Amino acid sequence: MELTFTAVAEDRPGPAWAELFQTLWPAYRRWYLREGIEERPTYLACRRALHRHMPELVGVYDRLCELAGGGDLAARFISLYRPPAYLSGCSQAVWPGPEPLLVRNYDYSPLAFDAVILRSRWAGRAVMGMSDCLVGLVDGMNEAGLAVSLTFGGRKVVGDGFGMPIILRYVLETCDTTAEAVRTLSRVPSHMAYNVTALDAAGRLATVYLSPDREAIVTSAPVATNHQERIDWVQHARATATVERERYILQRLLRRQTSQETFIDAFLRPPLYALGYSIGNGTLYTAAYWPQRRSASFIWPGVDWRLSVEDFAGGTRRLLYPLAA
Question: Which of 165, 168, 172, 296 is found 20 to 30 A from 185 (Cα to Cα)?
Answer without folding.
Answer: 296
